[in-house]
Amino acid sequence: MVDRRRMERDGGFTLIELLVVVIIIGILAAIAVPVFLSQKAKAQSAEAENDVRNLAGSEEVYLTDFGTYGTIAQIQVAEPRVRVSRGVTLSVVHYDAANGYCLSAEQIESGVTYYYDSLGGGLQPKGSTGCPVTTGGTPGDSLIG
């Protein structure tokens, strides 16, 4: 009789209880995964935005040093600080050596492209299709991270 009471007390969890726990964990995971993927996309977009702003700063340093704007290759020779985040394509769309430039940064996974127009107020709003003011000049080059 003592053994029977002991077995009932040490019986553990039933199959139903374990299934309920597994279902609850599954529901929580189904909620968390889309939130995580959304945050990942935001982080990737922020990387592209940051990269294009850094290149704009390098363009301004290059202008101060040499009196003209330049390509990424020219900037890297003089100012070897142009770094590109993984999955980002950074480009000098076009530049007028003395007046201004148009830059772009595309996050490959999300497909989001940011434009930076030196004469059009800097970073353009998300969803812009190009630079509104600096639309001409010499085509530049690209750097892929």
Describe the structure.
With 145 residues, the chain is an alpha+beta fold. It has one domain. Helices cover 46% and strands 20% of the residues. The protein is built from 3 helices and 6 strands; from the N terminus they run αααββββββ. β2 and β3 (113-117) form a beta hairpin.
Elements, N to C (H/E): HHHEEEEEE
Rg result: 27 Å
- Low-pLDDT stretches are none
Mean pLDDT: 84
Task: State the domain count.
Answer: 1
Primary descriptors:
rod-shaped, single chain, alpha+beta, six-stranded antiparallel β-sheet, 145 residues
SSE topology sketch:
Layout: H1 2-9, H2 15-66, H3 72-78, E1 88-96, E2 100-107, E3 113-117, E4 122-123, E5 138-139, E6 142-144
Antiparallel strand pairs: 1-2, 1-5, 1-6, 2-3, 3-4
Summarize the structure in short.
This protein has helices at residues 2-9, 15-66, 72-78; strands spanning 88-96, 100-107, 113-117, 122-123, 138-139, 142-144. The chain has 145 residues and is an alpha+beta fold.
